[in-house]
Specification:
The protein is α/β, with parallel strands linked by helices. 39% of the residues lie in helices and 18% in strands. It has 11 helices and 8 strands. It has helices at 38-44, 70-83, 96-104, 127-138, 140-144, 148-158, 170-177, 182-186, 205-214, 230-233, 235-247, and strands at 2-5, 8-15, 23-27, 49-53, 89-94, 113-117, 192-197, 218-223. It has an 8-stranded mixed beta sheet, with helices on both faces. Strand 3 (23-27), helix 1 and strand 4 (49-53) form a beta-alpha-beta unit. Helix 2 (70-83) packs across helix 3 and helix 4 (127-138) crosses helix 6. The protein is globular. Mean pLDDT is 88; it is low at 138-143 and 157-163.
Length: 249
């Protein structure tokens, strides 16, 4: 399905639940799109309505005409939520999508719960993560010359060995990576699930523990044996944890 949001033709998909009035909006990571969440969404829709959206510049949604920052993306998602009249809403965000969830999680009128899945948003301090994110920002040319272990981590992160960032998005990527959302995390007052793969080499588990310290009503659940994408690496455990959180009052 398509709708115009913030002057951009926007692609989205709904997995309706036969027995629930609750909604969950899932926001994908950088250089991914809604298709990576379809299998998970089908399973989740047995108990909750699931909404997926291609964020601007990814999938079948248009690229913004200007360089956006993370707050532009958050405003876009907020407008999308209002256009679809989504209420009883949980917002889940993976990696880059987690940044948007962090911002919107400070607005209790928009959502009632937040799920942060290996979420970005805190300052990147360790050298390895900084290097990997820089490599991702420059795209396929630099990835080709990296040692195989490092290139594999990046391919796992972006979802495809054919990855190449659209040149129009590079300024946006650099803006977003440099944005520290620590203060936003402190302002989240609604129930929050922090879900993390213990083997995440892009955003180490120290980030999860820091989020747990910052967010007053947060629960931390670790998916053992998973890396940066627990929803695809350990889908059954991921679904178990998320479903349990959604069922809590």
């Amino acid at each position: 399905m398509q709708i115009v949001v913030s002057n951009l033709l926007t692609n989205y998909k709904i997995f309706p639940s036969p027995k629930s009035k609750e909604n969950i909006l899932i926001l994908h990571g950088w250089q991914n799109n809604l298709t990576i969440w379809e299998k998970t969404s089908y399973e989740l829709s047995k108990s909750i309505n699931v909404i997926l959206v291609d964020l601007p510049g990814f999938g079948q949604t248009q690229i913004p005409p200007d360089s956006w920052d993370i707050f532009d993306y958050a405003n876009f998602v907020e407008t999308f939520i209002k256009k679809l009249s989504l209420d009883n809403l949980t917002i889940a965000g993976h990696s880059f999508g987690g940044r948007i969830a962090l911002i919107l999680g400070t607005k209790a009128k928009i959502c009632k719960k937040v799920i942060l899945i290996d979420s970005a948003g805190l300052p990147i301090k360790d050298f390895k993560s900084k290097f990997l994110l820089t490599a991702i920002g420059f795209g396929k040319p630099i990835i080709k010359i990296l040692p195989k272990p490092l290139s594999k981590i990046i391919f796992d992160f972006v979802g495809s060995s054919d990855y190449k960032m659209a040149k129009e998005l590079l300024p946006t990527f650099k803006k977003i990576v440099l944005t520290d959302l620590t203060e936003h995390a402190k302002k989240i007052k609604i129930p929050t699930l922090i879900l993390w793969g213990d083997r995440d080499e892009i955003l180490p588990i120290t980030h999860a523990k820091k989020f747990k310290e910052l967010i007053p009503h947060a629960t931390l659940r670790i998916v053992w044996g998973a890396g940066h994408s627990p929803h695809t690496e350990k889908p059954e455990k991921f679904l178990e944890i998320v479903t349990e959180f959604l069922e809590q009052n």
